[in-house]
Amino acid sequence: MSVREIRLFGDPILKSVCDEVTDLSAAESLVQDLLDTTSLPGRAGVAANQIGVGQRVFAYSVDDELGYLINPEIIELAGEKLEIEEGCLSVPGLWHKTPRYERATARGLQLDGSTIEITGEGLLAQALQHECDHLDGLLYLDRLLPEERKLALRALREQDWFLS
After folding, report:
1. Domain coordinates of the chain in residue numbers?
2. Which of 76, 117, 131, 147 is the catalytic position?
3. Which candidate, 55, 128, 163, 164, has a CA 20 to 30 Å from the CA of 12?
4. In the CATH scheme, what architecture does the domain 12-157 have?
5. Is 131 a catalytic residue?
6. CB within 8 A of 127, min separation 6: which ones?
7. Full-model pTM
8. How far apart are the C-alpha atoms of 119 and 161, rounded to whole Å?
């Protein structure tokens, strides 16, 4: 299909809770666009609302594994909650220490209707948490501890793309 443009901080769709997918056959082109958009170098994941679609779907690309989940939900978070450097395609140029669990398991659907679970540590755990947050209308900035959040918002206002 095609690589889609990433919506940036300030776009209302990024703060909206996405709708569940009810027709899997209608989601096929969205899934392909997400896979194409995520497969570019340096991208660990892209949620549907980041490309302007308010549906509960995301794609991920971690350790040469490209995949997707439809109607995902985090079913388990484990290990310590660590502050991990994190960025976001919708907030380009900024990286901040974000509290994330070491391990995460997400459950969702595939286009054929089968249910799968994905468990990851490190970057995959971080991506699962990050992308599920997007689908709930949260950005990683919303997860920052108060002092880090102040730094992030100050840095955000200094970005060339912000409010342009």
Report:
1. 12-157
2. 131
3. 128
4. Alpha-Beta Complex (3.90)
5. yes
6. 44, 45, 60, 62, 120
7. 0.95
8. 35
